[in-house]
Amino acid sequence: MDDQVLKSHDETARDILRANDRGGYTVPTAGLYPYQWNWDSVFAAMGFATFDRDRAWRELETLFDAQWPDGMVPHIVFRADEPSYFPGPSVWQANKGPLPSSGISQPPVAATVIRLLADLDPGRAERLFDPLDRWHRWFHAARDPDGIGVIAITHPWESGRDNLPDWDKPGDAIDVSGVGAYTRRDTSLVDNDQRPKKKDYDRYLALVQFGVDRGWDPARIAAETPFFVADPGITAILLRAERDLRAMAQTFGRDTAEIDARIARLEAGHERLWNAQAKAYVSRDTRTGELAPWATSASFLPLYAGVTARKAALLETLDGFAGAVRFTVPSFDPRSDLFDPLRYWRGPVWAMMNWMIADGLARCGEDTRAARIRSDTAKLIRQSGFAEYFGPVGAEPCGGGGFSWTAAIWLAWGLSDTKEGPC
Ligand code: GLC
């Protein structure tokens, strides 16, 4: 019998992290994503922490090695030259940090994970405190320059939820006429039906060019970009991260006044994203003031951030999602016409989103719902392996295989404790 078959899922998950290790940092998956990605690395660190603590800290430290002088921690760190990846460093031309990188950020889960791991090595956690604080401050200044308490993204990739339907309409304002011919790499590695369409890709590249033309100056980008969309995902993730940073500040005897002010601003700002018809926190096009008409998996993250005022309505929406699929939590409302179960962020399930959503539910006493999400995540992985994401109806493994964050969530969430057997 094949060795793979005999291996436990825990062992396979550890092997995936080891195989994706490029020496101090982990690639999300070989081939499709050959560099260090921001939130992927942070989740990878959670996985490493279950069997190699030193390696977990290295993952976090190497990410912060790429922090820009203005505080931004980039979404991709181009540590090695990988001509197979597009768009690479020569397209981004973002040379403002100590290492070649992209010019945008990604959801700041780091403070939350560092707090979780802090007991393992308080000294290493404390050394990351100031870099975290500077990064959070950067988010407020660069992505909420008017101080309204919601964090905007300047590129769909900054949300980490790349081709969500939420970005379609605000994206109509992006001028793509200057995007010349280009060759994508992703569609040669993954089925076309599971990746963004050409129209979306043109917009992605136009926004990169927009940043290049403004020297990646966040103030100019915020003032001039047609695409500045308040994102409930990044806003909730930052709010939770601020609370975790505050807890660490207390442990390390630091002043918390500035963090308290940032927390208060984000708590108040959340209400701007509430859509009463959709019964969800949704994205908001800051240029037009328009709220998205539907819920997404990030609509539930305010619970993870400790915003519970709308809990009953959110649970109703979550139950509506759950009733329409076999495996929770789909990334997009499965009752919408735009639901596309296998296409990237338009329907599939992601393990790390599930971990955050379930954490939020458990924190506000919703243990049964949290347990369903945990058990669905385990079933998907048992049935379909450590894929990048999964079909919420048929459990199809989608995107890249041998994926770091899926393996990490398996380990960190202790999913081998869940019951074996058919779904
Ligand atoms: C895709 C995802 C993003 C992730 C990256 C690497 O771009 O949308 O969230 O960080 O892949 O896995």
What attributes does this structure have?
binds alpha-D-glucopyranose, 423 residues, Glycosyltransferase, mainly alpha, globular, three-stranded antiparallel sheet
Cα shape:
globular
Question: Oligomeric status of the shown chains?
Answer: single chain
Do you know the CATH architecture?
Alpha/alpha barrel
Over the alpha carbons, how many angstroms does the gyration radius reach? 20 Å
**Average pLDDT metric:** 96
Question: How many distinct domains?
Answer: 1
| Helix percent band | 40-55%
Low-confidence stretches: none
In the sheet with the most strands, the strands line up as 3-4-7
The separation of the N and C termini measures: 24 Å
Strand-pairing-aware structural class: mainly alpha
Output the helix-strand order.
Answer: HHEHHEHHHHEHHHHEHHEEEHHHHEEH
Strand content: under 5%
Number of strands: 9
- List all distinct small molecules, including ions and cofactors, that are bound in this structure: alpha-D-glucopyranose
CATH class category label? Mainly Alpha
Count the helices. How many? Answer: 19
Describe the 3D structure:
- The strands form four sheets. Strands 3-4-7 form a three-stranded antiparallel beta sheet. A two-stranded antiparallel sheet has the order 1-2.
- It has helices spanning about 5, 10-20, 40-50, 55-65, 90, 110-115, 120-125, 130-145, 170, 185-190, 200-215, 220-225, 230-250, 255-270, 300-305, 310-325, 350-365, 365-385, 405-410; strands at about 35, 75, 150-155, 230, 275, 280, 285, 390, 395-400.
- The protein has a single domain (about 5-410), classed as Glycosyltransferase.
- The protein is mainly alpha-helical and about 425 residues long.
- The protein contains 19 helices and nine strands.
- It is globular and about 55 Å long.
- It binds alpha-D-glucopyranose.
- Alpha-D-glucopyranose (GLC) binds near residues 28, 39, 40 and 160.
